Amino acid sequence: MTVEIEPSSGGPTAYVERRKIDPESFKAVSTLLQSQSGSDELAIKKIGLSFKSLSVTAPGELTTTVKTLPRAILNTFGPDQYKFLKSKIFGKFHEDTNRNDGRKLLVDFTGLVKPGEMLLVLGRPGSGCSTFLRTAANRSTLDIRGDLIYGSTPAPQFERRHQRETIYLPEEDRHIASLSVRQTIRFALRMSMPTRVRTKQVVEELTEVIAKLFGLGHALETPVGGAFSPGVSGGERKRVSIAEVLAAGSSIQCFDNSTRGLDSSTALDFVKALRVLTDVGQKTTLATLYQAGEELYNHFDKVLLIDQGREVFFGSTTEARAYFEDLGYIPVPGQTTAEFLVSITDPTQRRSKPKSHAHDIRSPDDLAAAFRGSDHFKNLDREIQRYQQFAAAEDKLLPGTAFNLTFPKQILECLVRECQLVTAQRRVYYVKWITTIILCLSCGSVYWDITNTGQGAFTRGGILFFALIINGWLQFPELFDAHTNRSVLERQGHLHLYRPSAVAIARFLVDLPLIAFQHVIFMLAFYFLTRLQLDAGKFFIFFLTLFISTVNFSNLLRMFAYYVGTLDDCFRYGGFSCTVLLLFAGFLIPAKDMRPYFGWLHWINPMYYAFENLFANEFTDLTLDCSDGNLIPGTGISINLANQACTIPGAVPGSANVAGVDYISAYGFSQSHIWRNIGIMIGIALAYLLVGAVGSEIMNFAPQGGSPLVFAGSSERRKDRTGAALDMEKTAPTTSSSDVSLWSEKRLVTENAALTWKNLTVDIGDKQILKGITGYVKRGQLTALCGASGAGKTTLLSALSQTNFAGKLGGEVLFHNKPPSAEFKKITGFAQQMDLHDGTATVREALEFSALLRQPRHFSKEEKLAYVDTVLELLDLNKVADALIGEVDGGLGVEQMKRVTIGVELAARPRILFADEPTSGLDSQGAAHIIQYLRKLAHQGQAIIVTVHQPSALLFSQFDNLLALSSEGEQLYFGRVDTALTYFERNGAPCPSGANPAEFILETVGAGVHARTSDKGSDWSAKWKASPESRSLNDEIESMKETTVSPSLDEIDSSEYNASTLLQTRLLTTRMIKNQWRNTPYVYSKIWVHVISAIFVGFTFFKVGTSPQDLQNRSFSVYFILFLCNAIVNVILARYFFASLYWQFREGPSRTYGWVAFVSASIIAELPAAILVTVVYFLLWYFPSGLPNSEAGYIFLFLLTYEIFQVLLGLFMMALSPDLGFAGNVLVFIVCTCNWFNGIIVPYDQIQVFWRYWLYYLNPFTYILGGMVKAVISNVAITCSTSDLTHFSPPKGQTCGQYAGPWAASASAQLLNPNATDECSVCKWTSGNQYLDGFNLGDGGILVSKWSYWGIFLVFTFTNLGLVYFFTWATKVKRWKLFYFF
């Protein structure tokens, strides 16, 4: 149904006046709508939403027990695979008859939202608001029953034909952090605008229009940022999310708590813009907006109230209050309508008249039944019937495309964004390219004078193999970005900006020039330094093969990132694929020698085809010389070439040279396969790309709501608990906590001291964020810090608390009349806006951890733990005390998480509590609970300062003092809350009757989306400076200085931490081990990689013999453990990085534990897993390989030391590096260098002198390989197989013994048929020691005793240990910048 309409009767001017929207915003919305329609007139699709008896069910129980490591291991053998197949494959064809057995998230919802109407969805946390919005937007993957109709089209059909007409904006802000605000909005516009109007000029103009509409004009060139990435403020990031969604355009739009993080004025501006968009564009708008003020509420047409998944009201916003009052409910004086409605669903908050209908209502089902029996429901049912008849009579919607742009254009636009992303993250690529250059110069120079002898031929093969390995391994760090940005891909895919597969293809395309450039750098240095054949054709084939093989490796890793849920799993499968690719590439084991049960893998291995190409390309037209020790016999009487044979594979008896083609054929390769192999590799690369693209389309890891609470204990321990999670937000408190005391008799007498600040300024870079702020906070007072989004509220808290403060502080800050000392941090608590917790810890464990480490030393352990019970009771967290906290997308709900964040700080018994937006993301009831808890703390003597964004009038009245800031960081007011309105009225701004004081103040001083372009803030700042209140404040602070008693020496604890380093280490180690036990992917991935690798290696080299080829297989069997390093250490990098974030951003600044404890615990916690994987790998590799039983203990000890070495190497790399990408590239450099200069692939004698006499000896891998290879080969008696024998003819008239006997005796060779006269058979070795001599590992080699190798490797391990401590101290504590050029 497409019609052309006028915005409203009376024209735009009348509309603007009626809605109180500024003309510029109205014009901006109209311009946006016109661009989306693709014409100068508004061609609008009018699609309403109706639903009857709508129910949503989630599988599983209300609560569950955490899945620990043993369960994860057992599930490997069937259950996990069955669940995957059942949900992803069988579920597509067979309906699950047990779906009704799940949890009811929504029950019998009925309603209607017409085009041009706005529906406000209200409910307490856990009621089902998010589930309803996802269902209404056709985004839910849960079981949906009932009628859900868009216009006249049922939901399944609408999803197929009109996917672009519905959008859902989740509560969490997910963006590519390194892209700018302009790039983010511009991309959304280019993907959503019709092609005919999508010109560069129009897009740029609209970008400016949207930025101005949402007050983002000043931040267009600023990165969007993220939780741990610098960028715009949290409120501005939320506005970017909203702008992106509105730019995408749709007829039915659902916003899930989209005002989270916005101040009340900015939230109101957003709703006004939404109102205009809905009216002018005839949109159907649904929104959950927590803490909705009265003016905001009045902008909506209808309201839906939900109570524990039950619909308890649906109707006009003007009728809702009267309906519940008629039932007998009584509003609290001063409550807004939204607060009153939500309070109805809270048994502890609602009030009712005696003997009324409301008095008899006890449950959500009773409320729902009352509504379904009301006239409102009957009228609603009739209205739905009339609308459906009207919609059926209208023209049917023409089937639309799911996406605005064609698939090729989607790819093109995504490619442009990928190029922008590369530019924004250029530092990572600089590191990769510098790493490549250094590797080329160092490793390539090793082969500067390589010979064409038999030993040179082996080394030349090693060159080719490592060329493939280096460039493949350099792609591993890209897994970090591929996994991190997947949530953005899913969200924008659901907005129908593009198909996720378009991004997959765009990433593939942008990789091509980057990989090509990487190989240009590599080839120019490596190819010529190694003196490979100088032929243009061979150079091109080498480059092309290497390029395609690296593309294969990159596509393979990206493919896994689309299919698995965690970064640990990405590296698990990446490590497994690395095992297969390298083991069956044809170098370590020639194809002809591969076991049949695994040998087939080389046919699907792109590395095999790449190695064959490089091998055949290099050795074709090359002649190998046998004269240098490769002729048998080498000495004797009257030696004639006709009576000698060459030991090089492919040699012909009687010839001193081996043709390259014969050498190639001896390994089962052929030069004629080169172009065939290139085609196969391209095909495999495209197959990886296709499978990855399919995975990006079908796999969805976004939370769908209905996640149960996860408990650490058994069901026996939680059988009486309630509070299960019914939605993303989970549950709210159901009872009020008792009046418990937080204060002990051991509190110090000087606790009346205040924290004062005077003329405080903060400079970050060249910009002054805060300008002359004055105020104080003292015991027993609750102070509110208000201001527009981006005003510097968080910066002020950080400066005062000295937590994560990175700017330059000016002015005066005093505590106890002295500048805060180093001990100040440990006596304050800072509840940050980001809820940073160890998600695998229970609520009780988190609070006990804080209490034991942060409470003053004079409290006993029993007192500290008892205090935790007090805090749990105070914050009403007893019911979830044994529940896992969980991550952002699961676990506890938003409000419970906020209470845990506050509880963790309270458990430390702080003298001053700072709380940064503790009510952000909560509904009005949840916010009221949090402020009530804080008010109770203040009554009990706690000093508290809180930043708040959207306080209601009731919440605002709970505070004692108010500090107001302008958007420019200037002070507007400090004083009593109850005198604030008097101050503003005296200065010419009287507050209207019934207005929310907080909203009034923010509006008065110029907050909102246009705050930065308004001069109101500066005007009010000048008024404050000249006011008597300002002078009185300064006098009061001076008076405090005179009356404050300085602490006695007995009260001063000068230690940096309240707990000893030993206790810190013990408790932190326990927490980390519990994390590994409960967060199974990490240790499980390490076990999985070791098990699969051990099976492949152990059974590929099954029962290895004692022939010369078997000796090489023994050494390669040992050598393969080095390939585990890259996969395992990358997982350690990621884990250590995220663990360090907790320490750097929360637990370190709060003085919970120090850097020594952090490093020590990180190391100790890794040891159990290191021992476990050592045992697993050893048992599955060593004994199947048939290596000597006598050396089993020595090899196990070396393996264990190596596993610990890997752990320390990973921690060292991460301590050294600024981020994961940098650490990953440095790791590749270290691993490749150590692999190259260990004397196995490049024998000792072949290493250039410059490197041989220092790098070879400084390489830890030299000693692990030397010791282990020596142990499994030394003194082994050689038994040659037929393929290892060398045959030659003796001179006429001589037996083999007469001719070659003296030479065989002197060369320690085996002459197998001394009496033969026609053909002699010689095995060139008699003992494994001869093989070791060729690698400088024999008795005359680098070391004599095998224990010497282990001892030196142990020294390297302890050196790593020292480096972890040193670089953590240098980079994380002292903030040394080790890489200034980045």
UniProtKB/TrEMBL annotation:
GO molecular function: ABC-type transporter activity; ATP binding; ATP hydrolysis activity
The name this protein goes by in its record: ABC transporter domain-containing protein
Transmembrane parts of this sequence: 429-450, 457-476, 504-529, 541-565, 571-589, 674-694, 1087-1106, 1118-1143, 1155-1182, 1194-1216, 1222-1242, 1254-1278, 1347-1367
Family named by the database record: Belongs to the ABC transporter superfamily. ABCG family. PDR (TC 3.A.1.205) subfamily.
Location in the cell: Membrane
GO cellular component, as recorded: membrane
PANTHER family per record: ATP-BINDING CASSETTE TRANSPORTER
Keywords for the protein's UniProt record, in alphabetical order: ATP-binding, Membrane, Nucleotide-binding, Transmembrane, Transmembrane helix, Transport
